[in-house]
Amino acid sequence: MQQLTNKQILVGVTGGIAAYKAAELIRRLQDHGATVRVIMTKAAQAFITPLTLQALSGNPVHCDLLDSEAEAAMGHIELARWADLVLIAPASADFMARLATGQADDLLATVCLATNASIAIAPSMNQGMWRDQSTQQNLQTLISKQVLVFGPGDGSQACGDIGPGRMMEPEQLAVEASSVFKIGSLDGVKIVITAGPTREAIDPVRYISNHSSGKMGFALAQAAMDAGASVTLITGPVSLQTPERVTRIDINSAAEMHQAVIETLPVCDIFIGSAAVADYRPTSIADQKIKKSTETMTIELVRNPDIIADVSNHPQRPFTIGFAAETQDVESYARGKLEKKKLDLIIANDVSNTAIGFNSDNNAVSVIWNDGKVSLPMTSKQQLGRHLIEEICQHYRKK
Ligand code: C5P
């Protein structure tokens, strides 16, 4: 498959043990049709030599910002303009921090600031460094700046630890890089996406809700927007930035979400229900804060409307996609919902694995339809959003 034909990829190599895999990455990107140039940070050169990457890429490797000879041959601004994608692999914790704060103290960081191309990072570090609050904050900052995050994977590490922080394998990175360019096939299609939790009021200060972060729905909205769709995002309370040019409607309860969704149906081609809608709400909402007077108390609940089922039974029915978050027998429960709710596709998510699902940044899912299924391996929700939009687009076009 030559999905990167005519694409110019600037590979940034930073200092980490996975730097040796940059050699393999260059080969895999070339196999997919890309032309590759390389920038190395000073720390990267302690792990692998510029000569190796020069020989593999077939182009001089760029290392210094203040090298007048190199600048004369191809300056940092030209490099920034040359790239269709800047792929930083491995991306160390230090480089993520510098990228998040917009530093321009070496060639790679400067090119990242100067470029209009998409930037993707493949984080690679010790699991403790990856889990550290500072790294996680930097990650959120980078995601909010539209930096794509490929991986990291989970498993045994060079330092002997086991956990998240392994750089994604070169072939998988090349596939992820290809997907950055594949998108763009939903021009003029109107998509409505629900996201986040709902809150079901008990009294003026209390509610019933769940742990949904909304990250998957927001990533889908971003990917659909990038693919040319016009996107309406109907979301419960979440602390996420709205993707640019997406129309956002904020709701609290399932009933409000239901109403907002039904109102959009006259202008909806594709509906994606990624919200974790509360199945029940209190039968009545107390006017005043309920006082603690008894040892036990009972709240009577009543079923909420099934929003997605109402969408798929609506006379103005759009192409309808649901999610199934399951902890066991994931596929069979998901197929049951596909049938019962009369969906076109269902995206099944194993939430018993805490590395993926509800509140995490990564996810792995299966897309299931009547007579088929495709599994999408673990990656960032942001990148998975792009894969899902591609998959959804293919099925929508066939219909
Ligand atoms: O039945 P279950 O809640 O597992 O189904 C999940 C799918 O149904 C998701 O797509 C979710 O957004 C949707 N749903 C809904 N309204 C509800 C409950 C779930 O739209 N009341």
UniProtKB/TrEMBL annotation:
Q: Which residues are the active-site ones?
A: 159 (proton donor)
User: Cross-referenced InterPro entries, in alphabetical order?
Assistant: CoaB-like_sf (IPR035929), CoaBC (IPR005252), DNA/pantothenate-metab_flavo_C (IPR007085), Flavin_trans-like (IPR036551), Flavoprotein (IPR003382)
Identify the keywords attached in UniProt to this record, alphabetized. Answer: Decarboxylase, Flavoprotein, FMN, Ligase, Lyase, Magnesium, Metal-binding, Multifunctional enzyme
Q: Which GO terms describe its biological process?
A: coenzyme A biosynthetic process; pantothenate catabolic process
According to UniProt, the reaction catalysed is:
N-[(R)-4-phosphopantothenoyl]-L-cysteine + H(+) = (R)-4'-phosphopantetheine + CO2; (R)-4'-phosphopantothenate + L-cysteine + CTP = N-[(R)-4-phosphopantothenoyl]-L-cysteine + CMP + diphosphate + H(+)
Segment Phosphopantothenate--cysteine ligase: which positions? 191-399
Q: Name one Pfam family in it.
A: DFP
User: Which N-terminal stretch is annotated as signal sequence?
Assistant: none
Pathway listed: Cofactor biosynthesis; coenzyme A biosynthesis; CoA from (R)-pantothenate: step 2/5; Cofactor biosynthesis; coenzyme A biosynthesis; CoA from (R)-pantothenate: step 3/5
GO CC terms, sorted: phosphopantothenoylcysteine decarboxylase complex
Report residue spans for region: Phosphopantothenoylcysteine decarboxylase.
1-190
Q: What is its EC number?
A: 4.1.1.36, 6.3.2.5
Cofactors: FMN; Mg(2+)
Residue limits of the DNA/pantothenate metabolism flavoprotein C-terminal domain? Answer: 186-394
The Flavoprotein domain is annotated at: 7-174
What SUPFAM superfamilies does this protein map onto?
CoaB-like, Homo-oligomeric flavin-containing Cys decarboxylases, HFCD
**Binding-site positions, CTP:** 279, 289, 305-308, 323, 337, 341
What detail does the entry give on cofactor binding?
Answer: Binds 1 FMN per subunit.
| Entry-linked PANTHER family | HOMO-OLIGOMERIC FLAVIN CONTAINING CYS DECARBOXYLASE FAMILY (PTHR14359), PHOSPHOPANTOTHENOYLCYSTEINE DECARBOXYLASE (PTHR14359:SF6)
* UniProt xrefs under NCBIfam families: coaBC_dfp
The family classification in the record reads: In the N-terminal section; belongs to the HFCD (homo-oligomeric flavin containing Cys decarboxylase) superfamily.
- Known function: Catalyzes two sequential steps in the biosynthesis of coenzyme A. In the first step cysteine is conjugated to 4'-phosphopantothenate to form 4-phosphopantothenoylcysteine. In the second step the latter compound is decarboxylated to form 4'-phosphopantotheine.
Name-wise, this protein is Coenzyme A biosynthesis bifunctional protein CoaBC
Origin organism of this chain? marine gamma proteobacterium HTCC2143
The upper taxonomy is:
Bacteria, Pseudomonadati, Pseudomonadota, Gammaproteobacteria, Cellvibrionales
* Gene label: coaBC
